[in-house]
Structure formats: structure tokens, C-alpha cells
Amino acid sequence: MAIDYKSLPVYAQKQKILDCLENNQVVIVESPTGSGKTTQIPVILYEAGYATNGMIGVTQPRRIAALSVSEFISKQLGTTYPGLVGYKMRFEDYTNQETRIKIMTDGILLQEMKLDPWLSKYSVLMIDEAHERSLNIDFVLGLVKRVLKERNDFRVIVSSATMNTQVFSEYFDNAPIVSIDTVTYPVALVYDPVPGGSTTTTDSGCDQILTKIYNTVDRVLDNDEEGAILIFLPGEKIIKDCMDKLYYSPIGRKLHILPLYGRLPKEEQERVFEKAPEGKRKVVISTNIAETSVTISDVTTVIDSGLYKLNFYNPKNFTSSLIESTVSRASCNQRKGRAGRTQPGTCYRLYSRKDFDTRPEYTTEEIYRTDLSEVVLRMSELGITDFYDFDFIANPGREGIIGAVDTLHMLGALEEDNTLSSIGQMMVKFPLEPRISRIIVEAIMRFPDVLDKALIAASFLSANSPFVLPPNEEMEARKAHHRFQDIQGDFCTYLNILKAFQQTDNREKFCKKNYLDERVMAEIENINEQLIEIVSEKMGIPVVEGKGSMQDYLCCIAAGMIQFVCIRTGRESYRSLTADHICIHPGSVMFKKDPVFIVAGEIIRTSRIYASSVSPLTRPMLDIINPDLFDKLMACKKERESSREARMLEQERNRTAKALRRQETKKAEPAPEDSLSLGGFLFATKKIKGKKTALLPVEQLIQAIENEKNKNKLNNAGQMKGTVITNDNGSLLSGEKVSLIIELAKSLDLRPLPEKKWNRHMNVNVNDPIQKEQLVDSLGFILRTAIAKQKGREYGFITLYNNGNGSYWFKVSRGFSTALMESHSSLETLVEENVEWTKEEAGAINKALALVNSLYN
């Protein structure tokens, strides 16, 4: 059935929008999703003649939205793209000289403004989905405000969902707001918290949420509710887990299950708009991409986990953290609204009303939690050198700007007056993060024989990881990935992977066999080709297959990633110029290799600080990279050691002073210690080694976690230390943070494993079939709790060790991190053993690998 576009709610305000735009440079258009504003305002502007003296530009925050919007408008106007309508995103340009309506990502507009800072090719610009307040959107708004002062003829429409639109109006000198009302159907709201109130998708919390989702979908089917079901989850992995949970369930045959997230190929994303096959109910499982950017019209049921993932950047030590968090109240209501588009619907919230009421009203703007170095570099390129006074809609504060400026100075991109250096002028030619473009510039300037390799490294760093680890196939996937390993680390491994991918005749089969994401590999190849084009055609520098050394190649990497060059400070521990206690990520080729110096592509903070994409460096290479680098790293290492010695000396002084006070004063009755309240229990605290420490009897701790209705509260013990007390009055995890103990208690059984249940003295060789079977049968003991030291009843975690020659044994490690890393390393070695595994044995290894992988987060 043909769509009657004129019946869309936006047309009720068509004339008002045009009148306001005639009399004002900026108009704010607000409406709920489904009003047609995204697709119809560009058409309204085109029909009103705004394409006569320039293009109509439309920015979108996501690639999927830019693509779907351009396709929709092209179809409506009876044209194909590129033509009257076109779209442009990084490394994809489907526009030509005939294009009058140009849909683009906001990042592309920023790229264009370096050559055309006053946007002379455009008569009007529509900034869509402005309520998302991404870093790019905030920067675009600031730059557009400058354009408006120079061009009286320029017009801007800021399009937003009905969330805090007054802030846009005030920013643009009280610009008029046009509100579009849409026909909304009532949405019944059901608060149905996960048992125990779980608000996390890690480990046991994940199982609880998936079980609740299954029960809710089953309930919807039983109630005979019509329409599609939309489920909101925070990430790709749990979306896939949820698909499996539903597909293999008793109701799976009744469902047409589809995923939706940013990494999906275009064809897969578009399937969510299709009707379900006859006799089946469509179920779309999505990230927050379906909140506003994508409208699925037949949704009548929403199941909202209330979760999403946010990236936080620390400008002091240049580390990133991907944190799962609860969405704001505004986002909760956006999700609810997806159920009432075409008929009455229902929204099931898997959290309590009390939880909802305590959430922040809006999401923290990205500008407060992300790396600003690329924005600052673009500002300098545009001649804006007073970074601190730039008119952002939300001021990021000095700390974020200072961190960005420090990064760019370290990369050699800025002069002292904040103008671009010669290095910076070359860096801005690439649509890449500054650290990545600096790798290419280093190759151009100093190591041209490895330029081709540097472009490949930049391509891998600019894309998502191509490595796939399907559930229950971790062992097979690891073995496949290991085939490409290079002794010089991940950056050299990347060269091997792309070369093999390009040489194969059947890419789909190759990627399936080697557990690689074919779409990501194709994207990496495409980025590489585009970078070669920029260097060879736009810069006039030939790119040939060089014979340069791997040493030169890694020097280029380190020049861009100089903030992530690290020196070893202890066993499996490193320090960069700004961060300490860094470990090599278990997914790296260099895990457990322990070179003295390394360079990483990223430093990420989860439960620990990890270096990912790691390759080794040597002492002579540091001098090549930067003559002062070695001295700076050594100074940081000595500073750490001095700080540790000072702390130890201070602790010794405190102990001596306390001993003297005890001798000089009569022993008094001890004052009652403070208590820690968790899940309905009061846990006693006492001073241990000068630190206030919570005493956590293991059975009460487990019950507290089960009782607590909002598990986020369990982590509000700040930096308090804790000790788990076993039933025989032993101790476990002594001195660890209570927050970590709680997370481990959610995922692991902290109750000691009886000695008779496992073989403490097992020492087997996998080349012996009987011993191999004995080892596999014992893998379930990994990370269980057992006695580590009889004296003092100290407990630890059962850890798998190996000697590299086929022999494996268990040992109890008191430290959880040691147990985790050693066990993971041994499992990786086990995967590589040249022995045949039965299906059952492979399943046991996969289960053990899945456990340790999950605990790294």
C-alpha cells in the first residue's frame, strides 16, 4: 500500500515551519518519533525552493540512519542515489553534481568545514536527532553558530525529540520552537523487576535478565497481544545471547527474531522493517539505536532492560572505560513511546518504579565523557586557537580541553600558539582520530618503506575488532585466531590477517573457518583502500609494497600511540607515561610474554587496566621514536617506586606509633565498630593494617546479594576494603575492595570447595589419553575457592598452571587476578596442544574459557 506522506503529522505544521524559517535564521523543531520530521522536512524545504541557491544538508548521528533516510527520500521523490538525493559518510560518498538533498553523518559535515568553513554550498542545514547531544553534534552546533554570524542568508533547523529543546532555543538567542503533535496511542506501563532487582548483564545478572525476557515474551504470546515486540538490551553480545535463549526455547518456533545494532550489515538492519512470516511474531532485539534513530512502525510491545553502554574517557591518564549503566528517565520514556505508534501497546520495564524515579532526568552529554583531541585538532585547522572560550552549547570544562591539548602536543600536532604544526597539517588530511593519523604521518616523514603497513594498522584501529568468539566455540575460535599470530605482536598479526583475507577466493568461507567477521574485514579493506587513495592521489605520495623492517613499522605505531608506550614495572605489570598497573589483555598475542617495553593501540579500564593491540619494543627503538622517551618512562617508574617506599615507611611509622600508645595507655573497652549495610544485613567492620575493613561472612554475603532489590546499591561502599569470612572462620579476598568482592560473589561460588571433591595434587600430561580425560573432567574446579595456607586459614582460588610441554596442575592462588590470568593463559595453551579433543572435551574447555573471559569485565 502506497504511503500518504501528506498525512504525516509534520505536514500539519508545514507552513509554520516555513514561516518561522523565513523570519528567523534558526528554528527548533520538536516532536515525538514517527511525526515524519526526519524524512519530510528535507522534502518540504526542497518543494519550497531552498535547493535553488544551494544544497539542503541533513546531518545524522549514525550511519544506519543516514543510509535509511536517503533511501526513503529517494523513493518518495522517484529518484535513485546518487542524484537529486545522495548520502555521504566516512569512506562512502554517494553524491554527485546533481545532488540537492544531501544526507550525511555529522562527522562528514565537520570534514567539509575545513575546506568550506562558512558552508557556502548549503542554503539550509537540518541538524537531526540533536537531542542525542553527541560530541560531533555539540561541535557542529558551535561551528554553525559562527556561520550564522557571517551569513545572513543561511538557515538552520535543529530537529529534536521532545527532550529538553529549550536549551537549543536559548543557545540560538531564543530561536522559535515549532512543536509537532503526533497521534499517540495509550501505552500500558508494567514495572516487572528481574528477581533480585538485577540491573547488570554480567554473568548471573545476564541469566536473570534473559530468563525474565523469555517469561515476558511467553506472557505476551499467551495474552494474544498483537504487533511486533521490541526488546532493548545494552550490547551486541547479550543481544546474541538473547536471540539464542528465545530461539532454542519452547516458544522459539513461534518467533521471527531479528537483531539490531550498529555493527550489523545494511541488509540485516533493513530486515527489521519487514513483516514477519505468516504465523510468527516479529521480535527485534536492539541497542539504544531503536530509541530514536530507527522507527519500527508495527511495534506494540516494548521490553526494556533499562540498560545501555557508555564510553568514559579519563583526560588525565588517557584511558577509556566502556561502562554499562542505567539509562535516564528521558530515555526510558523514549523507549516506552515506541510501543504506541500505530495502536495501543504495552511497555514492560524490567526494573522497579523506585529505580526509575531515582534515575537522572537526561543522559550525560558526550562532551563531558570523551576524548576531545580530535575536536581540538579540527578547531585549530579552522583557525580557532582559543580553545577554552569556544562557544560550546555545553562547556566541557578546562580539564577535558587541557587533556586534548596535551595529547596533541605530545603528538607534535600543535605549535606553542595552538596553530597546526607541519605534522598537524598532514594529520588533518585524514578522517581519523589524531593518534591514528599520526602513525601514517610518521611513515610518510621518516619510514616510507613501511607506509603500506602503517595504512593497514590505521585501518584495523579505525574499525571494530574482526575477531568472533561465538558461545560454546571459544576453543575453536582461539585456535583459528592463533594461526595468524606473529611473534612481534598484534600489529604484525594484523598484516597477516588482511593479506590472507585478500588472497582467498572465497571470503565468506575463509571468515567462517577462521572466526572472523566478514563485514568488518571488508570494512577494514575498504578503509585501507580509501587511505591509499588519500595518500597517493590527494597527497601525491606513492604507496607501494615496501620492504621496510618490522622495527620501522612498530616505530611508526609508537609515534602515534606514544601515550600508550609502556615499561614493565613488575610481573605482568606495566606503566605508561600517565597510567600505572597496566596488564596486557588476554586477547593479545603478547599476553604472558612480558617484554620490557610495549606499545598498545588502546588502554582500557574494566576491572583492571588493560593494554590491547600490543606489540613489543626494544630499548634502541625508544630512542628512534623519541630521544627523551626512555628517560621519561624511567622517571615514571622511579616515581612509582619512590611513592611505594614512602607509603610503606608511613605505614611502619603508624604501626610504631600505635604500639607506643598501647603501651602508654590502659587498655580500654573497644568502641563499637561501624557497620556496613548490604542487602538487609549489617556487616561488622574493623581496622586491619590501618584500613577500615568489612567482615563479610560468605553465607550472609550471598543472601545479601539475593535480597537486595537494587543491586547498584551494593556497590556503594566506596573504596572500603573487605574480607570474606568462610564458615570455618577462614579469610578470602583479604584487603580487596568491597565492590570487587560483590561482583565476584555475583559470578562465582565463594564457598570453599571441600578437599575431597578435587585433587589438589593432580599433575597430568595431555599427551596421555587417560590423564587428558582427567584434566578435562577437572576444569570445572578453575576459580573455585579452596584453602591456600593452612596457617591462618587463608583461602584462595584454584588456578590452572602449565609448563609449556603438555603438563598441567592445580595450585591455589590467594590473589584473584593471579588466578584469573594464570588460568586463562593455561587454557589458551591447552587450546594449542597438538591433541585430538572429543566434542564433550571441547565443550568443557569452551565452558572454562567462557567463564574466565566473562570475568575480565
Features:
alpha/beta, Rossmann fold, single chain, six-stranded parallel sheet
CATH superfamily of the largest domain: P-loop containing nucleotide triphosphate hydrolases
How would you sum up the global shape? globular
* Count of alpha and pi helical runs: 29
User: Which sheet architecture does the biggest sheet show?
Assistant: 8 strands, mixed
Descriptive account of the structure:
With 857 residues, this protein is α/β, with parallel strands linked by helices. The chain folds into seven domains: 5-179, Rossmann fold (3-Layer(aba) Sandwich); 187-368, Rossmann fold; 385-428, no CATH class; 432-559, no CATH class; 561-638, no CATH class; 675-747, no CATH class; 755-855, no CATH class. 40% of the residues lie in helices and 20% in strands. It has 29 helices and 30 strands. The strands form six sheets. An eight-stranded mixed sheet has the order 4-3-5-2-6-7-1-8, with helices on both faces. Strand 25 and strand 26 form a beta hairpin. It is globular and about 85 Å long.
Topology:
Elements: H1 14-23, E1 26-30, H2 37-47, E2 55-60, H3 63-76, E3 85-89, E4 92-94, E5 101-105, H4 106-113, E6 122-127, H5 135-150, E7 155-160, H6 166-171, E8 177-179, E9 187-191, H7 204-222, E10 228-232, H8 236-247, E11 255-260, H9 266-270, E12 281-286, H10 289-292, E13 299-304, E14 307-314, E15 319-326, H11 329-337, E16 345-349, H12 353-357, H13 373-381, H14 398-410, H15 422-427, H16 434-445, H17 451-462, H18 474-482, H19 490-503, H20 507-513, H21 518-538, H22 550-560, E17 565-570, E18 573-575, E19 582-584, E20 597-605, E21 609-617, H23 619-625, H24 629-664, E22 675-678, E23 681-688, E24 691-697, H25 698-707, E25 721-725, E26 731-737, H26 738-747, E27 763-765, H27 769-778, E28 785-789, E29 794-802, E30 807-813, H28 816-832, H29 839-855
Parallel strand pairs: 1-7, 1-8, 2-5, 2-6, 3-5, 6-7, 9-16, 10-12, 10-13, 11-12, 13-16, 19-21, 24-25
Antiparallel strand pairs: 3-4, 14-15, 17-18, 17-20, 20-21, 22-23, 23-24, 25-26, 27-30, 28-29, 29-30
Helix pairs in contact: 2-3, 4-5, 7-8, 13-14, 16-17, 16-22, 17-19, 17-21, 22-23, 28-29
